[in-house]
Amino acid sequence: MPKPLPRSFYLPPPDTVAQALLGKLITHRDEGEKLTGRIVEVEAYFGADDPAAHAFTGKTARNAVLFGPPGQAYVYFIYGMYYCLNFSCEPAGQAGCILIRALEPVKGMETMARLRGLTPGVKPALLTSGPGRLCQALGLTRALHNGLDVTNPASSLFVHDDGYQPASILATPRIGIRKAVDWPHRYFIAGNPCVSGPRNSF
């Protein structure tokens, strides 16, 4: 059984944790099956100091997970149809987080395709390229997964390390936001076909 990354991994600032997450594996144990993808694209958000962050205006019922211990899943709903997965970071009370923007499928691709309503054998990018797609492919929802401790070995959702090291990491401004649009805190593995946004540094 893979060992989840420890809570200490999530203690540094969001930009540090975001880059360290690239190449790590996310696994969701779903009805006895393991659905696994490698993290290839992320964005860092800085809480109270970041106008684009959910926590910028303070703690609410919606974003309370971000203010808790590091290493918790923060799942939110957007556009009335998609879920997005984040991980809290920094010490409790400091609401930093990392948005997982894209995965490269590793295990359970037939189930991922079914959950996405696609035919088995489709291109991997169609399964997990984009925040909404990857949540569908892994079967993640706010009701079931928001607030899960991903550092707990008993958790159905966790992050682990198989030793993979990205050859090159690129950074660009974050995408899909209206505030702090020039902050260069979107990070991705150079050359990976599952990256969801622009694939060159701006």
TrEMBL record:
What Gene3D superfamilies does this protein map onto?
Answer: Methylpurine-DNA glycosylase (MPG)
Q: Which InterPro entries match?
A: Formyl_transferase-like_C_sf, MPG, MPG_sf
Its top-level enzyme class, in one word, is: hydrolase
> Which processes are annotated in GO (biological process)?
base-excision repair
- What GO molecular-function term can you cite, just one? DNA binding
Q: Which SUPFAM superfamilies match?
A: FMT C-terminal domain-like (SSF50486)
Does this UniProt record's set of keywords contain Ion transport? Answer: no
The EC number(s) this enzyme carries: 3.2.2.-
Q: Which keywords accompany this UniProt record?
A: DNA damage, DNA repair, Glycosidase, Hydrolase
Q: Which NCBIfam families match?
A: 3mg, PRK00802.1-3
> What family is this protein classified in?
Belongs to the DNA glycosylase MPG family.
Protein name, as recorded:
Putative 3-methyladenine DNA glycosylase
Q: Which organism is it from?
A: Silvibacterium dinghuense
